[in-house]
Amino acid sequence: MSKNTSDADVAFISALAELLNKNDLTELSVKREYAEDDSLEVRVVKQSNVVTVAAAAPVAYASAPVAAPAAAPAAPEDPAQHPGAVTSPMVGTCYLAAEPGAAPFVTIGATVAEGQTVLIIEAMKTMNHIPAPRAGTVKRILVSDGTPVEYGAPLFIIE
Asked: Any stretches that span the bilayer, and where are they (predicted)?
């Protein structure tokens, strides 16, 4: 392969990476044929926080049975086990405000009514308003704006 082809390949791979970011993709795979015995296969993968969170979850669950005799102190520390926990009904990206720069839907100490929107979860380019399942006071906010969440992940503590 000549130097020009190598430069063209580098430009091609850079363009793929830019396309990946621009279109919010996580993986892109391309095979480029030059001649009968000359080709370039490129696989560009962007690791997201969702993958990291999913990989970290089994470790936490795997350690829970080992710590079973000491479950009493561990239960209050796990927000998902709190009786006032509001969990995610879906996988997606959570937003604490209607748009960037806007005031958040709720803050710590705020009183919420049942059915009041507490955050938005974007899933497949659809904005899903997540309502408070019960009335109460927001004691803890367990997610940050723009972070990915999984199904069942604790979002808030409302008492």
From this structure: none
pLDDT value for 95: 92
| DSSP β-bridge partners for residue 136 | 112
Q: Tell which residue, 117, 123, 121, 120, has the closest CA to residue 138.
A: 117
What is the per-residue pLDDT across 119-155, written as a single tens digit (0 to 9) for each?
999 988 889 999 999 999 999 888 988 999 999 889 9
Task: Retrieve residue 81's tokens.
Answer: 């086990």
The Cα 61–Cα 51 span in angstroms is 16
- Cα 123 from chain centroid? 10
- CB neighbours of residue 148 within 10 Å: 20
- The C-alpha atoms of residue 81 and residue 43 are separated, in whole angstroms, by 40
Q: Which amino acid is at 96?
A: L
Sorted by where each starts, the structural domains of the chain and their CATH numbers stand as: 3-45 (no CATH), 79-158 (2.40.50.100)
Tokens of 102: 């806007």
- pTM exceeding the 0.85 threshold for the entire prediction: no
